[in-house]
Amino acid sequence: MRYLPHTATEVASMLKTIGVPTIDALFDAIPKSVRLGRPLELPNGIDEITLMRELDDLAQRNRASSMLSFLGGGIYDHHIPPAADQLLLRGEFYTAYTPYQAEVAQGTLQAVFEYQTIVAELFGMPAANASMYDGATAAVEAVLMARRLTKRNGVAVSAGVHPETIATLKTYVRSLPGGVEAIETAPLGHDGCLDSAWSPKNWSDIACVVVGYPNVFGCIGDLTPIVRAAHEHGALVVTVCADPYAMALLKPPGELDVDIAVGEGQPLGVSMQYGGPGCGLFACRDSRAFLQNIPGRIVGETVDADGQRGYVLTLSTREQHIRRERATSNICTNHSLCALAIAIRMSMLGKRGFVEVAEQCLAKTEYLKRELVKTGAWELPYSAPTFNEFVIKSKRGPVAPTLKNLENEGILAGIPLSRWFPNRDRELLIAVTERHTRADLDKLVAQLS
């Protein structure tokens, strides 16, 4: 009776109180034609010892934790100290709800404020919101914000933006003015970055240009030309970053005059957990128009009647609130726990530690690239510089058989580009983080030789 606590006597008493003869009678309004008509096919109940044994057996089938992984493509295996997870388990954080009442939610509000500060510093921009669902929806919200600001419907998206982000964008705009047809693809050049010769069909209809920085192929291009061209024609520029550790070594979007910078926060403090949850990073200019159109909400710092520092929801135009008719977004909450995880991990690293992680990622990636090319079996299809992810192309044929063999050997060598681009079956996307050792890299090179 641990999970079904009501006795037959108690059930009979409740039914008598509400004037219903049986539990089945509660569902008389549901036509019999749509009812199952039989008990659910569930196994018999078992004792807890047997249950734990079965769960352990199921867990043993999962090989992910024991495999050498070079998977990336938007989710990255960076180190997260156990201390960070332990702090997240504190009840005041783990069970905290939306901080509507500032007087009883100062801890949550301060944590989110610190998170916003970190995001603003990462992207070199003056304003950041209190987090989005994930990187893909953050990119979509940036596009919707650009449409509101410019009063234009057209969107130019670089072919280097993650295909799943583009698919998410198409889902959101499908029923909006212009629909999917309003999205124009900006092609890549031979170096793997946005083609410098590209120009949209009609600049006057373009609300924004969305560019990966770095892009889905790991390539890093000069944003200056596209930022200049977009601004000359009244359009905005949105950058999308899959792994924010890259910001430790690259010039931040804010210094490049980018209007809105978004990214996936998972690498900064949230373990991979089968692909989620993510945490969308979002930063932008701090002009009145931008702040009034930023999606979600912003936690701000103020003082109380006694002059003591405090935190409040400065901007929060959501459809659940009193200004629902002026809501800028349909986002229903911020990922406060994920945002806190990021703030904790980044505080543990500090600025110097953050840069050291990025330097390790870059150095190990460059080593792996060189060693793979030296085998003679692989080549680099793109010449642009990369951070911790790159595309390698097989000279021998499709990579699928090789990947399957390596998986059997306990190695996840990367993501085949055929997953998103069917005609690119000879190319592999490989990601490297600070968790990889020299031995790990040499092992992959030996297996791919």
Approximate shape = globular
Strand order of the largest sheet: 2-8-7-6-5-3-4
Which stretches are poorly predicted, pLDDT < 50 over at least 5 residues? none
Helix content: 25-40%
In total, how many domains does the architecture comprise? 2
Specify the CATH class of the largest domain. Alpha Beta
Structural class: alpha/beta
CATH topology of the largest domain: Aspartate Aminotransferase, domain 2
Helical stretch tally: 12
CATH architecture of the largest domain: 3-Layer(aba) Sandwich
- End-to-end Cα distance, whole Å, is 59 Å
Q: State Rg.
A: 26 Å
CATH homologous superfamily heading of the largest domain: Type I PLP-dependent aspartate aminotransferase-like (Major domain)
Query: What percentage of the residues does DSSP assign to strands (E)?
Result: 5-15%
3D structure, described in words:
By secondary structure, the protein is α/β, with parallel strands linked by helices. It has two domains: 66-79 and 350-448, Alpha-Beta Complex (Aspartate Aminotransferase, domain 1); 82-345, Aspartate Aminotransferase, domain 2 (3-Layer(aba) Sandwich). It is 34% helix and 15% strand. Strands 2-8-7-6-5-3-4 form a seven-stranded mixed sheet, sandwiched between helices. β9 (298-303) and β10 (309-315) form a beta hairpin. The longest helix is centred in the last third of the chain and has 39 residues, at 336-374. The relative contact order is 0.14. The model has no long low-confidence stretch (mean pLDDT 91).
Quickly describe the structure.
34% of the residues lie in helices and 15% in strands. The chain is of the alpha/beta class.
